[in-house]
Amino acid sequence: MPEIMVFAAEGRTVDQKRGLVKDLTDAMVKNFGVPAESVTVQIVESSKESKAKGGVLFSDR
Questions:
Q1: Exposed/middle/buried for residue 30 (C-beta within 10 Å: 0-12, 13-18, 19+)
Q2: Membrane spanning segments where (predicted)?
């Protein structure tokens, strides 16, 4: 059972998440040769106040 974890700052729409999990599942099916039903995708969201890049909070960008 392959599992994909995606870490991202909050703010994506449900439609964007649907598209992402579909594309990731399709890639796993194609490249690993597993059935789609066995692929788990988890999106782990952080608030923009709890995530930073280059020493700057995402909320300050």
A1: exposed
A2: none
Residue 55: predicted pLDDT: 97
Bridging pattern class, strands 40-46 and 3-9: parallel
**pLDDT at residue number 7:** 97
The verdict on whether 35 is a catalytic residue reads no
Q: Give me 6's structure tokens.
A: 């995606």
3-class state of residue 13 by DSSP: coil
**Residues 1, 2, 36, 49: which is the catalytic one?**
2
- CB-CB contact of 7 with 53 (8 Å): no
Work out the burial of residue 13: count CB atoms within 10 Å of its CB; fewer than 13 is exposed, 13-18 middle, 19 or more buried: exposed
What's the mean pLDDT when you consider all of the chain?
97
